[in-house]
Amino acid sequence: MRVRIQESLGARVGKLSHDKKKAIEEEEELLSYTADVLPSLEEQEVRQLYPKGPNIDFKKELRSLNRELQLHIFELADILVERPSQYARRVEEISLIFQNLHHRLNSLRPHQARVTLIHILELQTKRHKQAVEDIQRPRYY
């Protein structure tokens, strides 16, 4: 599957500007790294509730899973009041939603780490430039 993703991203890269090529290459790298480090839900024998593929809108999918989780929790409360003996199925569904949310969030961790590192390096560069300017600035006593 990773080969097909890389081929489809590689085909798109040839037609785009430098910035867009860089963004697609980063997306490809993220997918490759995540596939190597994070086992898929299928490998964990968990049913995947969000769509598969390289063009997934993470925010949309997380919001959807969050809304679904809220709905199931409200339904669980209703079931506990009206039919307490039938709560087990709803609890299993809530567990499945949590596993999918957890997996989706973990798949974003490499991107989050990269963005955090870029931010830290930009701050360090800014501080170093300021220190050089302070040293080069003439001082009058």
From TrEMBL:
Predominant subcellular localization, coarse grouping: nucleus
* Biological process annotations from GO: regulation of transcription by RNA polymerase II
User: What keywords are annotated for this sequence in UniProt?
Assistant: Activator, Nucleus, Transcription, Transcription regulation
Report the domain of life of the source organism.
Answer: Eukaryota
Q: Which GO terms describe its molecular function?
A: transcription coregulator activity
Locations listed in the record: Nucleus
Transcription regulation among keywords? yes
Q: Which Pfam families match?
A: Med7 (PF05983)
Cite a GO CC annotation: core mediator complex
Describe, as the record does, how this protein assembles with itself and its partners. Component of the Mediator complex.
Function according to Swiss-Prot or TrEMBL: Component of the Mediator complex, a coactivator involved in the regulated transcription of nearly all RNA polymerase II-dependent genes. Mediator functions as a bridge to convey information from gene-specific regulatory proteins to the basal RNA polymerase II transcription machinery.
Family designation: Belongs to the Mediator complex subunit 7 family.
Q: What is this protein called?
A: Mediator of RNA polymerase II transcription subunit 7
Native source organism of the sequence: Rosa chinensis (China rose)
